[in-house]
Amino acid sequence: MSKSRAFKLEIIKFSKDFLLATRLLQVFAPLNKLFFFLYNFNQLTSWVHKNKKEKYLMNDFYRSKRNYDDRLKSFEAIVRHYGMAEAPIAYLEFGVAAGYSFRWWMAECKNANAGFYGFDTFEGLPEKWGMFAKGDMSYGIPVLEDKRAHFYKGFFQDTLNNFLFAEGNGLRGRRKIIHLDADLFTATIFALSQLYPYLEKGDIIMFDEFSVYDHEFMAFKIFTESFYMNLKPISAQNNFYHAAFEVV
Ligand SMILES: C[S@@+](CC[C@H](N)C(=O)[O-])C[C@H]1O[C@@H](n2cnc3c(N)ncnc32)[C@H](O)[C@@H]1O
Description:
It comes from Flavipsychrobacter stenotrophus. By secondary structure, this protein is an alpha/beta fold. The chain folds into 2 domains: about 5-40; about 55-245, Vaccinia Virus protein VP39 (Rossmann fold, 3-Layer(aba) Sandwich), CATH 3.40.50.
């Protein structure tokens, strides 16, 4: 190593140790949330503007008023485009709540060999999320007649690995639709990182609250960057609040 490089390294090491020992930067601690917001929201803004011109099945960016139910238009376009209505898909939903979106997918995808797997605490959110308190969205396990539905109760952190150990091989070679609707960063990053070894080209990953900069978007960014994962955006609704991707 050259002398000047070694000198620079010494300066960097000394500065870091000095800041750690003196706690000098803690004077800025009251601004942590602001810096966090600025950094992450700017990341989201850059991502949206970089990706908004991709070829989408549908993309309504920019619209002045959101309509949450427009996510169903995305679902419909995806089912049609990928011919899922009669295919033996594996639909995995992370965050089922009362089962509204889960029922929608079961009603649209009619193949008798399709499998529908729903993961939830069924006792509500494990953490506060925005205006929602811990425990909100507690509805119990939905009661469905359709034998293709399977529910896994508990934190994903406790249920997903057992599921993958038992059923993971059966997911290979089938188109998987992974619907991430747990809202939280923790739940989303956990689900994505565990599902990673099972992801195959042509699988679809949908984020219900993609543009929430400190939750699903942050999980998306960390996941794609840490796992060198290439996800192609295919559909976006409500200014990227809802976004779907294909594994390529
Ligand atoms: C917005 S709701 C799901 C709505 C549903 N997909 C729909 O569209 O009808 C979010 C759900 O995620 C669940 N959830 C969040 N984090 C979780 C975790 N770590 N483990 C299990 N369930 C979780 C909550 O219990 C809640 O029911």
